[in-house]
Design brief:
By secondary structure, this protein is α+β, with helices and mostly antiparallel strands. The chain has a single domain, classed as tt1808, chain A (Alpha-Beta Complex). About 25% of the residues lie in helices and about 30% in strands. The chain is built from four helices and eight strands. The strands form two sheets. A six-stranded mixed β-sheet has the order 3-4-5-6-7-8, with helices on both faces. Helix 2 packs across helix 4. The radius of gyration is 15 Å and the shape is globular.
Length: about 170
């Protein structure tokens, strides 16, 4: 029998498998010291991409909204954060059809890497680099939301599917 955990954002009972403990740590960070409300956070956000004409359906661990705009996509990982940077970067670029989610974050609940989704550059490391809600609001005001180039969408979808397909212990 699988142990369960109560999700900090949704209050739902979930199987405690894979990186779930890491995700709960990130959720508590967002809700606590980072100042986000549960209504700002989408858990297991559905994502569908098309590769070679075939749909691929999966979820993104956490997506944070600021002023109604998807602002930050988060991959909660167990193990090496570096090995999941490209996956969450691709997800952030593909989540919305009208704009790239500005920030992509990978975290194990104890450490984090924050990436600019448009440039792909690392803009911060450590949990302190994850913006608070007020910092995110300021960052959003300073940015122009940019769509992901349609001609690069299929390649980015293939990259995302390749990394996402390696995830194990999904409930």
């Amino acid at each position: 029998m699988t142990d369960t955990v109560i999700d900090a954002v949704t209050g739902e009972k979930l199987p405690d498998v894979g990186a779930e403990a890491n995700r709960q740590a990130v959720e508590r960070l967002l809700l606590g010291e980072k100042g986000y409300a549960p209504s700002d956070i989408e858990v297991n956000m559905p994502l569908q991409v098309t590769v070679g004409g075939e749909p691929y359906r999966t979820v993104v661990d956490l997506v944070v909204r600021v002023k109604g705009v998807r602002f930050m996509a988060i991959k909660c990982a167990a193990g090496s954060l570096g090995s999941r940077e490209r996956e969450i970067l691709a997800a952030a670029r593909l989540l919305d059809s009208d704009h790239q989610v500005p920030l992509a974050v990978v975290s194990d609940g104890r450490d984090a890497v924050v990436l600019d989704s448009v440039t792909g550059r690392k803009i911060g490391e450590g949990l302190s680099a994850v913006p608070t809600r007020s910092e995110a609001e300021m960052l959003l005001e300073q940015r122009t939301l940019q769509p992901f180039p349609e001609e690069r969408r299929e390649k980015e979808s293939l990259i995302f599917r390749s990394y996402d397909g390696m995830n194990v212990n999904r409930a």
